[in-house]
Structure formats: C-alpha cells, structure tokens
Amino acid sequence: ADPAAAPPRDNKKDPKGRRPLVTPAPEAAQETMIQAEHDVLESGFCVSVHFATGRRPPPGEEGRGDWRSGIVMRAYKAQVNDEQIYDIMMADGKEEKAVNHSRCRMVCYVCLSDKRAFRPPPMFCEKCFAAIHQRWSYWEEGGDEGGLKLCKRCFSDIKGAPNPNKMLADLAHRTNLQIDTFIEKKEKDRPEYVDSWVQCDECHSWMHWTCGLYKGEDTSDECLFFCDNCRLTRGKALAAELTVPPSSDLPEDVLSKRLQNNLRKELKELSVQCSAVTIRVVSNVDSVTKFEPAQQPGSGGPIKLSSAITGLKTFPYRSKCILA
Ligand SMILES: [Zn+2]
Ligand SMILES: [Zn+2]
Ligand SMILES: [Zn+2]
C-alpha cells in the first residue's frame, strides 16, 4: 500500500485519521474522491465486507446482503480499472481475492463494528423537570451553544403567559432570555454521540477510544499508543500518560469491601476459577427530586408516599454506581 494514501496514523488529533471508511457515491465530486484516497485500507486492518444477496442493487445503493468481518492481507490496485482492491482473510478462514474497496468498511479491531454510538445523555425540561423523550420535539433557546430546554407543554404555557421573558429569567436566573428566540428541535437536531478512533503505532490496527481504553486526548503526537495485543505479545509498553490504572487502585469503602469479599467467597465456594474480581463504588450522589403540585403526594399524582412525608415538595435520595 502507498503510505501516503494511508490514514494519518501519526496524527491522532487529526479527526480525519479517526474517521471510519467512507465510500464515495459514484457521482461524487472531486473533493470527495480525494478524501476517499485517505481511506484506503492497509494490510492488517480489520474490515467488514459486504456480500450481496439477491438482485444487483441500483448504482449507488448498498442492496441487500450481509456484512462479514475479516482482515486485509494485501492492498493493491486492479490492473484493469486502477480501482483499489484487497485480498481479505475472512473470519471463517477463507480468503477473498480482489475485493473492491466499495464493499469494505473499516471496523474496530476490538468490537468489529464501525460506528460506536453512545446513548445521548438524558434531557429534562427545565420548568417541570420531566424527562424529554428522545423522539419528542422540545424547545431550546437559540444560539450555537443551545441552553435552556423546555418541553412542548411548558413552552406553550410560558409563551401564553402575560410576561414570558420574566418567567424565563426567573427559571434560568439570567435576564437575556427571549421566548421568541426559542427554536423547536427534534431528535435529529441532537448532536450524535459517537466514539473517536485511535490507531496502534505498532500493528497499525484501528480501534475506538473506549475499546482500546485510550485516554490520550491531551497528549502530544510523539506519545505512542499500543493496543493490548501488542502490549501482551510484542513487549510494547504505554507511556505513563496513556497508562490506565487497574480498577483495584480505586479507593475502597465499607460497601465495596463487603460486596467484594462476599462475591469472592461465593465464587470460591462455587469453585469458579477466575482472576480476582474487583468491586468499587464509583459514585455516591445525594440528590433531590422536586415535585410539581400536580404530582404532590395525596393530590392524586402518580407518586404515592407514606403519610409521614406528604406535604413535601422535595424528596431526597442517594444514588450510587457500583461496578464490578
Ligand atoms: Zn470498538
Ligand atoms: Zn416541562
Ligand atoms: Zn497493536
């Protein structure tokens, strides 16, 4: 493979280098074609290969079929039309010869998927505190950053009130809010939360940051990254900045000690052979739920509480995250 056409492996901060394979449409503009050159795969890359089933799809469409994973063994240009093609060792042990670039997409060497999407963080109406369902539309103050979010009902309540901007100021403790600048947004307007890519500097495999436990966002480009396979089998070691400490380094508390000891004892009694299980309480947050009058206990709302705490407008609780 032509090294100039490879993804920029030495520049982890270049977002181009982290992008998974993009297949240009047949009528793609020159710009896209140049871009696609950078996505040429190298030998050793994990790929997903499309195997069409049924009728030939119309040009530019993927058509039916399935995706199977493999590893690029050789990357070269076809003699007839100069197209980028690959010999690929499939996961089932069969080798596919001269697979066209357009049938391949780069996948993560750890999870074998291309895009790793995260569930977007939950969103709440800042007036009634109700969770805004992902598929509902909602209203958000204008501007690039966004900001105050309101559910549909609260937005129309405020808009219909005699002094909407005063209500907004009271809600947000800011005076510059104008109800007329709010924009109705839908799920598709929410930013997509997807993982970035990083390449191993030894075997050149690409993986998602979370899959490779990569935390080098702020490290210099000279700081090399090695995948766990190269660390285990090729004697490579990560720089101190990139080393992820083991979970057993996290501080213990009474609850985690108790859980961990009991679980280890139980596993031993069941004769389960495994390395020591670590349990830690990683967050411990005191929080308060607020009630709107309609939801207040005793007023027919959906939440029923014992009579001792009726009449409260807030309900305190503690939330813990415990990981094993
Ligand atoms: Zn992955
Ligand atoms: Zn609301
Ligand atoms: Zn590696």
TrEMBL record:
GO CC terms of this entry: histone acetyltransferase complex; nucleus; transcription regulator complex
EC top class, as a word: transferase
A biological process from GO: positive regulation of transcription by RNA polymerase II
Entry EC no(s): 2.3.1.48
Statement: the UniProt record of this protein carries the keyword Transferase: yes
Compartments, record wording: Nucleus
Keyword Transcription regulation (UniProt): yes
InterPro entries: CBP_P300_HAT, Histone_AcTrfase_Rtt109/CBP, Znf_FYVE_PHD, Znf_RING/FYVE/PHD
GO MF entries: chromatin DNA binding; histone acetyltransferase activity; transcription coactivator activity
Source species, domain of life: Eukaryota
Region (Disordered): 1-26
Catalytic activity: L-lysyl-[protein] + acetyl-CoA = N(6)-acetyl-L-lysyl-[protein] + CoA + H(+)
UniProt keywords, alphabetically: Chromatin regulator, Nucleus, Transcription, Transcription regulation, Transferase
Span of domain CBP/p300-type HAT: 244-324
Function: Acetyltransferase enzyme. Acetylates histones, giving a specific tag for transcriptional activation.
Protein name: histone acetyltransferase
Species: Haptolina brevifila
